[in-house]
Amino acid sequence: MKRIPTVAGLLLVLATLLYCADATGKWKGSLDVGGETHELNFDLKASGDTLTGAFIVEGQTSELQDGKIQGDTVSFWAMSQYQGQAIKLVFKGQVLESEIHFTMGLDDGSWSTDLVAKKAM
Questions:
Q1: Phi, psi dihedrals of residue 70, rounded to the nearest 5°
Q2: Which end of the chain has fewer beta carbons closer than 10 Å to its terminal beta carbon, N or C?
């Protein structure tokens, strides 16, 4: 009788370890900066615990760097432009069925914001 809870617990742990968020696909979000809305697009491809793809904002495409997946959490960074300056943006997000809830910020931690990207059909 003691084996049933132990086996059930082991199966639950195994299922949790095997679960990998389905981040693959095209995702769209937006960000309000100074009263202006900027559309953000993500083209993601998940393979095992690696995430690759692109971050697209205002027609500029940046390749994802150091993309990782752990369970339902994704993380990566990408370069972008702000007022003519190159900036490194760091992303961490939780993948839900049809949304990714991101925290996006500067690599030095001086600024961050939350945004939601929805799966594009």
A1: -135, 105
A2: N
Helix (H, G, I), strand (E, B) or coil at 100: strand
Q: Which position has the token pair 């940046």?
A: 62
Cβ atoms of 40 and 59 closer than 8 Å: no
Distances (CA, A) of 84 to 27, 63, 80, 81, 106: 26, 19, 10, 6, 16
Location of structure tokens 């993948």: 95
Residue 47 has a CB neighbour count (10 Å cut-off) of 11
Q: pLDDT tens across 26-84, in order?
A: 999 999 988 999 999 999 999 999 999 999 998 999 999 999 999 999 999 999 998 89
- How does 56-85 read in b/e, with b if 16+ C-beta sit within 10 Å? bbeeeebebeebebeeeebbbbbebeeeee
